[in-house]
Design goal:
mainly beta; Elongation Factor Tu (Ef-tu), domain 3; SH3 type barrels; 2 domains; six-stranded antiparallel sheet; six-stranded mixed sheet; elongated
Length: 176
């Protein structure tokens, strides 16, 4: 089983916004509503996590506007530009049966019918049509699998990622 991290990435500060100390950030949570539930976010300073008390989270186009306590001018939030925002794992509500994306990375990817090991999930990208899983095969090749019900049958911590591959998914990786 892979190591469970105490802090998970939840967004990234892109820029300041306005004159009252708001900042514009990418939301890496399921939704701005999920991010708004966080009362504290953190930035990493060396090995230390520095807390930032959240005053407000407002959806803004495809991002969010954040306001942190005590940062009330553009000059005060400018040093946050480019910083990744973190949340404590225990502060993130996870519905029963759901799995966090961060916990999916590293799971074994197996054939749903035969149990054959194809590799490990190494990345998840979000394409317009559907998420795309990157499976790293034992020989180090990357195979892209659309995360749609036709191919992905189940994802769980216990079983890993169970897929139904079609010809071509792993053919090139197997020829080496």
């Amino acid at each position: 089983m892979k190591e469970e991290r105490s802090y998970l990435e939840c967004g990234k500060v892109c820029n300041t916004h306005g004159v009252r100390g708001d900042c514009k950030a990418e939301c890496w949570c399921d939704s701005p509503k999920a991010m708004a539930a966080l009362k504290v976010m953190y930035i990493k300073r060396g090995e230390e996590m520095r807390p930032l008390s959240v005053v407000s989270v407002v959806p803004f186009k495809e991002m969010v506007l954040l306001h942190f306590a005590g940062l009330d001018t553009p000059e005060a939030v400018l040093p946050l530009k480019g910083e990744v925002l973190y949340a404590r794992r225990e502060d993130i509500p996870v519905p029963k049966g759901a799995i966090l994306l961060a916990d999916m990375i590293g799971l074994e990817v197996r054939d749903a019918a035969t149990g054959q090991l194809y590799g490990h999930l190494s990345d998840i990208d979000f394409a317009p049509a559907s998420p795309v899983y990157t499976v790293q095969t034992p020989d180090g090749k990357d195979v892209l699998i659309p995360a749609v019900p036709a191919f992905v049958q189940e994802v769980s911590r216990e079983k890993g990622v169970l897929i139904t591959p079609i010809p071509g998914f792993f053919d090139e990786a197997e020829k080496v």
